[in-house]
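Preliminary data (for renewal application), flavin-adenine dinucleotide complex.
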Amino acid sequence: MESQNKFTKKFSFEFFPPKTLEAVGKLQTTQEHLARLKPDFFSVTFGAGGSTRERTFETVMDIYQKTGIDGVPHVSCIGSTAEEIQNVLKTYMDAGINKVVALRGDLPSGSIGGGPLRYASELVEFIRKETGDHFHIEVAAYPEFHPQALSAQKDIENFKHKIDVGADAGITQYFYNPDAYYRFIDSCEKMGMDVPIVPGIMPIVTCTQLCRFSDACGAEIPRWILKRLQEFGDDRKAIREFGIDVTTELCDHLLSNGAPGIHFYTMNQSTAVETIWNNLNLSDINRNQD
Ligand code: FAD
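Predicted structure:
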């Protein structure tokens, strides 16, 4: 973990582009609340095959116009043609955006055809070829390993390849076992990687939603957490309190051990993140390190 200590701590919040007018209104309230915490950026997800292309762009622009904080679009390559990706990059460059999160993405089950760029590393290479050094590029990292990885070692090698071809930093899939992150960072260090790898953290607010996501993305919910959550049944208040407690401790542990910031998966909600932020006085950490 030593190498991670030298990086300035960065805090960011992830949103997905809202689908309905009502959801747009709710996200605006969320972004107003979270903007007060002065994060380094807000990122906005991108549906595979470009399904949210316009909404991702509109959300990113809206964030910047309303809060003055950078909106960072995710770009995924699976299911998109080279020309479509070129157009997306040009739109972002023309709008003055200079940071992206580059991903492979996941096609919905049953979809056929992946497009010319099969892996995120190929997208990173493509972005560098098309736009030189214009974009700061963040890529995904998996401390508990990507579900399709051939092996743990191959997955770390594939992450390294993304860095070698031009990515500047990593954001991890969410996890609740900090040792998985520390081990991952140690392996990256041993393989000579020298970029910040920021832990992605999903505050626990409901049990069903968490289990559904975790099954799909391969994130492990430790048995002791699952057992407790199941015991709370329909008691949403108890689940929330327990979830915030566990997530606060996790963030504290990670930051105290040198993690270079936190990227919060907000699910477009502000309350849990604000509570964790205030519990840990993260505004002070942020200011001291800037
Ligand atoms: P890759 O890095 O390409 O890896 C995918 C798999 O392929 C891994 O198993 C890897 O080991 C393997 N692999 C890589 N290169 C090779 C190779 N050359 N040969 C063989 N195997 C290889 N999804 C979205 O659709 N939209 C989003 O906005 C989005 N945002 C995300 C943000 C973060 C921070 C994270 C962690 C994930 C996000 N995802 C998003 C989910 C992500 O798209 C999925 O996890 C997807 O399955 C993998 O994307 P990747 O960029 O990690 O792919």
